[in-house]
Amino acid sequence: MEQLGQLGVVGMAGVFMAGLGGLLALMLALANRKLFVYEDPRIEEVDGLLPKSNCGACGLAGCRDFAEKLVLGEVVAARCTVSSPAQIAAVAHYLGVEAGAVDKRVARLACAGGRHVAFLRAKYVGLSTCRAAAVVSGGGKECGWGCLGLGDCATVCLQGAITLDAHGLPVVDQEKCTACNDCVTACPKGLFALALVKDKLWVACKSRAEGDLAEAACEVACTACGKCVADAPPGLLTVRDNLVEIDIARIGEGKRAFIDRCATGAIVWYDDKGEPQRGAAAKKILRHDDLPLKAGV
């Protein structure tokens, strides 16, 4: 009898648990029905047509987010600058919309101080990355704002758009660059920024050192002489903290003539091939060898 009683208790417990499980399953089913959010099946298809790089070049969180915006008609397919023309056309064809067009953006470097024109005050020896070098007294370059030339930007560029020239200065291939922003994030000196290809005017310097001190550290540094400011429309260029700055909202007003009187070539004009051109008054750079460590520093 005692055993039968125990079996009865176990049976009741089993029935209770089964009932509880059924009740919870019913509640979950009702909640699923109540909270269900419809997702357009086209999102999955469009996401599959995208490059899956999740680079953020489109300005959104990733390819999935971009696919959702595409299906809603809030962005155009051409905004994915990583996609090939064929991929963009395929997305547009699937959705039955125009591919659209966007102004191409590229990464640009605010430094022209390669090893042949910029002095070192110490030789850095250690982990061969800009981020590591920057931790050790700024990396050893006389100009504390200058490019360290160890190529963190080139390493993170999945498109292979950045290479280092013979003087350790990053060069951006305008055709390969997708404006993914990786180099902007990777540079410990904050020397990279994204710019529209159509906006040609650019200040290739970040030094805040005063005039002669800036040029003594780097022969192509901005000395804040103000000649370009005088030649440009009022407000387009200004000098702040010993450096010329461009009003981004008005950069479309830039003209090549504004760089002509810059003696160091710190303010440049990008040609159609994406190569920076210096003004007529800029001193010629004839040295090809690296500068030695600066004496007395």
Tell me what the structure shows:
With 297 residues, the chain is of the alpha+beta class. It folds into 2 domains: 42-95, 3-methyladenine DNA Glycosylase II, Chain A, domain 3, CATH 1.10.15; 105-277, Alpha-Beta Plaits (2-Layer Sandwich). It is built from 9 helices and 9 strands. It has helices at residues 2-35, 42-49, 63-72, 85-95, 130-135, 152-156, 182-186, 211-217, 227-231, and strands at 105-109, 162-164, 170-172, 192-196, 201-203, 237-240, 243-246, 267-270, 276-277. The strands form 4 sheets. It has a 3-stranded antiparallel β-sheet with strand order 5-8-9, with no helix packed on it. It has a two-stranded antiparallel ribbon with strand order 1-4. A hairpin with a 5-residue loop joins strand 8 and strand 9.
Structural class: alpha+beta
CATH architecture of the largest domain: 2-Layer Sandwich
CATH topology tier name of the largest domain: Alpha-Beta Plaits
Helical proportion? 25-40%
CATH class of the largest domain: Alpha Beta
Mean pLDDT: 90
Rg: 29 Å
Q: Which strand order does the major sheet show? A: 5-8-9
